[in-house]
Amino acid sequence: MQAVAWFPGSVPSSRKLPAATAAVALVLGAVAACTDAPADVGATPSVGKSTPSTPTPAAPADGELPRGGRTIFPKYQLVGYVGFPGSAALGPLDKDLDTKAARLETLAKSYAYGRTPQPVMELIVVIAKEKPGRDRMYRGWLEDDKIQEYLDVARKHRALLLLDVQPGRADIVTEVRRLEKWLDEPDVGLAFDPEWAVGPNQVPGRVFGHTSGAELDEIASYLSGLVKQHDLPEKLFVFHQLSTRIISQEKALRQHPGVVMIKSVDGIGHRKNKESTWTKLTTTMAPDVHAGFKVFYKEDARHGPLMTPQQVMSLKPRPEFVVYE
Question: Where is this region: Disordered (predicted)?
């Protein structure tokens, strides 16, 4: 089937999005693993259908993080790749996962700066679409067998798996709760892309989506409950932001036990523009939120050389999560 994927970049003039520094464009691609909604809407998705030819890697021992311990900071420096199966436009994690995981390991070491490098595989599992779908929610779901495939590779390479949600018109909290069977795992975290969280009469890609500090707080509270219920190590919660208008009243987001919150600043383009966006968005961070930074392989390269690890790590505050798309 044909589905729609998205990535930050330039927008056709007919799509008059308001922010000059952070527009979006559509990329059409065949993503057969993507469905309009879980088979049983409102329930937790069923276990994946695939039967691996090799044993499924086990979760980290004793409920620990992949590389030991139960707390993320200050021990670890997080470095990630984003991706969606079969779509190179959405980041490096489109195929050849073992090869990409090995490259990510090398990249993570260049960001260590005295910390232990911790690779992160950020998999888009709920993806915004330009078509409404059967339930008119303008989003599709990645099937369980594909999520399991990525989790197996992450465990093989002792990486964290981060499940990225682009909810379209769907309620973000409902979409997150449908991922509970994965979020119960000690090495699986959550990412939210509110750029793609649009209102009931809006279409993803034609306007920027939006969230609030209160909504982020509700998600963090839910994750904290899972950590307590299952005696999990700290759970990673990343929310992406590329414009001030995408998150309102951010300081309503509070610290929740067992949840590490990271704002990923997704500035696009020339180094000066990215640094300007960084300064603007990190000054609005809620207390106890850590800083993250995104590098776009294609979009940033159109405006000059990619920022080096040294340049990224010279930012103030220093990013504790650096992710490449």
Answer: 41-67
Q: Which of 172, 278, 184, 178 is nearest to 217 (CA)?
A: 172
Q: Which residues contact 226 (CB under 8 A, 6 or more apart)?
A: 180, 183, 184, 232, 235
d(CA 118, CA 63): 17
Cα–Cα separations (whole angstroms), residue 43 to 166, 174, 241 = 18, 10, 29
pLDDT digit string (tens) for 174-210? Answer: 999 999 999 999 999 999 999 999 999 999 999 999 9
**pLDDT over 80 (residue 216):** yes
Alpha-carbon span 159 to 227, nearest angstrom:
19
Question: What tokens appear for 21 in the block?
Answer: 């520094």
Question: Is this prediction's pTM over 0.85?
Answer: yes
What is the predicted pLDDT for the residue at 61?
A: 79
Positions of E strands within 175-266: 188-192, 211-212, 235-241, 247-248, 259-265
What pLDDT band is residue 33 in, cutting at 50, 70 and 90?
Answer: low
- Residues 303-325: pLDDT tens digits? 999 999 999 999 999 999 999 99
Domains detected in the chain: 2-34+64-324 (3.20.20)
- Residue 142: what pLDDT? 97
| Residue 320 · residue 78 · CB < 8 Å | yes
- Cβ within 8 Å of residue 311, ≥6 positions away: 271
Q: How many CA atoms lie within 13 A of 109 on its CB side?
A: 5
β-pairing, 139-142 vs 34-35, is antiparallel
Cross-strand pairs, 118: 78
CB-based contacts of 96: which residues, under 8 Å, 6+ apart? Answer: none
Instruction: Report the alpha-carbon distance of residue 285 to residue 292 in Å, rounded.
Output: 11
Cβ atoms of residues 287 and 250 within 8 Å = no
> How many CA atoms within 13 Å lie on the side-chain side of 20?
1
- Cis ω for the linkage preceding 74 (within 30 of 0): yes
